[in-house]
Structure formats: structure tokens, C-alpha cells
């Protein structure tokens, strides 16, 4: 299609050849534009991903410098990619001592088993009705050897969105973060709330508080660095079900769900009580040697022609590394 388009605009194909990249099939096309300039397109197909490299130089230039840049292309492992993309954007690491005691680690609260080091999660959109297709990075979370989060990178359709770091300051579990993507300023939507109990602490954005009952987390609170509420989450357990309700900084319901868990504590059904009781089914397709799931598929139960059917929405993939 690229060659055809350029030819239609008066350009010409200089060369087209098959090539390879680290043993993976590839194709290179070199073309000259009708209005001047030369371009090289390289396509590499690696597993289920297509990489496209393009460079263009003006007439009179050799193109050697541009080709050298293309030749420097290499694939990084999935844990290195975000490090490269966010090297300058990451907030300063927070102190990790002295530790504020917590009944269970973050990993345990998230039903992760083993000495988890890093969890890389991707999402694949499956719905035929959705305009979004394909598989994208979602989050990459690093844990310390005690199982508590120390850093999390969040993506929005493959683009890094924000990076958060966790630590301890003045006897508080705290979080600092920086937005990487350009997000519009929505502060004008905020209403005047109660007067902050203290001046904002510039060393962090939020502090975290937890409460447990019968060995399970039943309250999670996020406080802004001026001491005011930002998010409260309450959990209620009954047999193999858990109800979760979250309130925002203005006391309005942010999320309200009830979930059914399997014997391993994995969520297999969720009802969104805040959205007309929409019901979702989660099927687990694979697990690793520690018993942590590595792929699941979420479907929505809907009524079509008077019958209840399950319509796939997304699949999630996790690559998990562990401390030795």
C-alpha cells in the first residue's frame, strides 16, 4: 500500500527486499518521492507485534546517518521498555524506612502468591462493538521483598500515563506520582470543600491508611497531602463474596460492586451495582507455577433475543517475575 501510494504521487520504488531482525521475518522498501526526498520503510513481525521503522532524507543527502539510526533499533524486554520511556519523568524515590506496619502486604491483598517482584499487565480488547482493538500495556508494578508496592507505571493505550512511587515519611505510608501524558487540567470542576487541616506536604501526593478485620482488608483510605480525604474504599465479606464501595473526596459513590471469588480467591463474577447491575464473568485461561493467573478473559452477560449470552470484552495478560 505504501509503494502504491507513493507511485501514484509520481514517486518510484528504488528497492524492495526481504530481510530479518534477530531471526524474525522482515521487509524493507526504499522509495523516492515524486516531489523529492528518499524514504526507507522497514517492517518486522515479532510474535504478535508488527514494528514499522521509517526514515526520510532530502535529495542531496546520502542517508547514511538515517540508516545508521534504523540499524541501531533493538528490542528491549518488557520490563526495560518503561524504564527507558520514563527515565526522566519518574518522581524521586521515597524513603523505604522506617516501615509503617501493615497486617498484610500489598501483594497478599491483591491475592498474589510467592515472592513477587514485578507484575507486567497487558489488556487486549475483544468487543466487536468497541472502536479500540489490539493488545496494550496496562500497568507495570514493582514490589519489594516484603511484597509491598514501590513503583507503578500506568499506561493509556500503550502510552505511559503516570508513574507512582511508594514509601514512608513521618510515620505515614505515602505515594508520590507524576503525570507523563498531557492530561487536561480539570481542577475547575472541583467544588469548595472543608478547609485543609494542614498545609500541603510537597514531599508526597497522598498518604495511605488501612484497616483489617478477620485477616482481610476492610477499609482503605487515601488522604491528600493536606490531610483531606481523597478516596475511601470499604470491603464487606460474606462467604465467597466481597462487596466493594468507594467514595470520592466529595463523599459521592465512586464505585460499588459485588464480586464472587473462587476457592483460590480469584474474582470469577462481578456485578456493577452503580451501573444498572451490569454483570461480568471472568474466566482464567492460564496460571504460572506459583498459582498466579497469567491470562484471563472478561465477558459481559447480556440479553439478546430473550436469551442470556456472554459477550467477550477484554483479555488480561500478566508476566510475573519473582525474587529468588
Provide a descriptive summary of the structure in words.
The chain has 324 residues and is mainly beta. Helices cover 7% and strands 53% of the residues. It is built from four helices and 18 strands. It has helices at 2-8, 64-71, 81-85, 106-109, and strands at 12-21, 24-32, 38-46, 49-57, 116-125, 134-143, 149-156, 159-169, 172-179, 206-213, 216-224, 229-238, 241-248, 253-261, 267-272, 278-287, 293-304, 307-322. Strands 5-6-7-8-9-10-11-12-13-14-15-16-17-18 form a 14-stranded antiparallel β-barrel. Strands 1-2-3-4 form a four-stranded antiparallel beta sheet. Strand 14 and strand 15 form a beta hairpin. The chain starts with a helix and ends with a strand.
**What integer is the average pLDDT?**
90
The major sheet is characterized as:
14 strands, antiparallel, barrel
Amino- and carboxy-terminal Cα gap: 49 Å
Spans of at least 5 consecutive residues with low confidence: none
Order of helices and strands: HEEEEHHHEEEEEEEEEEEEEE
Strand count: 18
- Count of runs of 4 or more consecutive helical residues: 4
Sequence of strands across the biggest β-sheet:
5-6-7-8-9-10-11-12-13-14-15-16-17-18
Query: What fraction of the residues are assigned to beta strands by DSSP?
Result: over 45%
